[in-house]
Design a protein that fits this description.
Number of strands: 15
Strand order of the largest sheet: 1-10-9-4-3-2
Number of helices: 4
Bound molecules: FE2/S2 (inorganic) cluster
Largest sheet: 6 strands, antiparallel
Length: about 240
Amino acid sequence: MSFAKGWHPVALSTSVEPGSSAGTQIDGGEYVVWRDNSGVAHVWQDRCPHRGMKLSFGFVRGDHIACLYHGWQYDTAGRCRYVPAHPDLEVPATITVPVFASAEACGMIWTCAEPEAVRPPTPADAGEVIPVRSLYVDNGADALLRAVRANLPSPVTGDEPSAIAPAGDNLWRITTGADTLLLGLQSIADNRAALHVVLAGPASVYAGAGQTHYLGWTADLRYALKHEQAPVGAAARAEAV
Ligand code: FES
């Protein structure tokens, strides 16, 4: 299984620690996001070629990920290198996991299914960013984006108008006052989507109060989706968080 053209965000960079793995979905397909101990992120099909166990249930050892079920180990190219039940076996090169291109930019992990020859450029990095959150909702990506457009945030200070503009594949930039938010939109399934939200700027400015302010905005978004674009505000947030 593969997914639509272009780059897709699958997680905030800070949510996948070195030596860990997590399952995710793009357009209904299941993928494992894992980070080796040197810090490089990988996105693969979430299925062990042996008996189909999810590799996201496995464990990372150095630059390998091992399947939970029978312990087959795969290197960073997706090739099986070790079968515990047959430790002396030279594992056939045909035993591989489908591997997708991965990149990190704007504080998010991205993946692309297109071959290198036709692959679009990786998302442009935005310098220092501060993670806000990944918001998961039981709505499709189009509905989530409509809710964002209808409920743009106000800045941490001031009341200048806000604007949203595309900034790349599945990436939007919101400018509001002196603040810039970057939003990575992940289509998980027809009725499920995620918004990976970061603040562009230094931690010395935005860590703490800035993150809290925009966390409240994501709670407003959830409320707006749940109540079909009803007006939102701080009073609604307790229900929405
Ligand atoms: S199912 Fe993965 S090693 Fe057997």
